[in-house]
Amino acid sequence: MSRKEESPFIQKVVEIKRVSKKTEGGNRLSFNCLAVLGDGKGKVGSANCRAPDVFSAVKKATRKAQSQMISFPLVREHRTIPHRIEYKAKAAHILLKPAPAGTGLIVGGAMRAVAEAAGIKNIVGKNLGTRNKKSTVDATIKALRLLKNPGERLTGKK
């Protein structure tokens, strides 16, 4: 009798790709999984892992994402980010702006998965660069890492 454990984390699978490797005996198939994991309270992480089957790839990516989590400040009453941020990493160029309560998630694709897992309820975002999901997820998480508390941002102190 197996019992499914309730995890305190929100898990989002952004992308699963079937990849193959040419070997002497033919093709070796495996699956590549990009997963985002968050606690819904301002902590989020992502990982890209490969395994012979989909379930193993998802499990591996989730475990790795948990070990690579970062935390960032949230404006508690509106569940949004404290200030506007624009971030460019290689081809990925993203823009995230805070939104008033009731706005919801106005972000698309891979950025939406990161926002939902992190616990952001009101945000406006735009992907200005690449369509590559891995690059977009990485740039979004790096941008969230750069966020500062409202008091820190004005005074420059912690």
Shape: elongated
Main β-sheet description: 4 strands, antiparallel
Strand segment tally = 8
Radius of gyration in whole Å, from Cα?
A: 17 Å
What ranges have pLDDT less than 50 throughout 5 or more consecutive residues? Answer: none
- Count of the domains: 2
- As laid out across the biggest beta sheet, the strand order is 1-2-3-4
What is the top-level CATH class of the largest domain?
Answer: Alpha Beta
String of helices and strands: EEEHEEEEHEHH
Strand fraction: 35-45%
Classify the fold: give the CATH topology of the largest domain.
Ribosomal Protein S5, domain 2
Determine the N-to-C terminus distance.
51 Å
Number of helices: 4
Overall average residue pLDDT: 91
Question: Which bin fits the share of residues in helices?
Answer: 25-40%
Q: Would you identify the CATH architecture of the largest domain?
A: 2-Layer Sandwich
**Structural class, from helix and strand content?**
alpha+beta
Compact summary:
With 158 residues, the protein is α+β, with helices and mostly antiparallel strands. The protein is built from 4 helices and 8 strands, in the order βββαββββαβαα. A 4-stranded antiparallel β-sheet has the order 1-2-3-4, with helices on both faces.
Structural commentary:
The protein is of the alpha+beta class and 158 residues long. The chain has two domains: 10-70, Double Stranded RNA Binding Domain, CATH 3.30.160; 72-148, Ribosomal Protein S5, domain 2 (2-Layer Sandwich), CATH 3.30.230. Helix content is 27%, strand content 36%. The protein has four helices and eight strands, in the order βββαββββαβαα. It has helices at residues 54-67, 109-118, 133-145, 150-155, and strands at 10-23, 26-38, 43-51, 70-71, 85-89, 92-98, 105-106, 123-127. The strands form two sheets. Strands 1-2-3-4 form a four-stranded antiparallel sheet, sandwiched between helices. Strands 5-6-8-7 form a four-stranded mixed sheet, with helices on one face. β2 and β3 (43-51) form a beta hairpin. α2 packs across α3 (133-145). It is elongated and about 60 Å long. It starts with 9 loop residues before the first strand and ends with a helix. The mean pLDDT is 91.
